[in-house]
Amino acid sequence: METEAIATNLNTVFKAFDFEPHTGLVAYASANLVCLLDQSSEHPRVLFTLNEHKDRVNAVRWLNSRQIVSISADKSVIVWGCEEDGGEKDYGKWKVQ
What we know:
Layout: E1 17-20, E2 25-30, E3 33-38, E4 45-50, E5 57-64, E6 67-72, E7 77-82, E8 94-96
């Protein structure tokens, strides 16, 4: 099965998104999800979402080109990591660290 589209909105908190210049990816918070948006092409699109938080995500930040930290209203802090260099756009390569 191929994903046709993922529709999400941005949480209205100050630190709800962050841009990673090496990969061209934007990580942003939408409800209890962390979304990864590829804006490097003519038609930007959400590649996938990362889902472990139980409540609204209040902040996301890239730590480097393969790690994101997210903070939620559920009082959890999650560091997400891409296991493979060059695999940043592949959902299967991302895990909670």
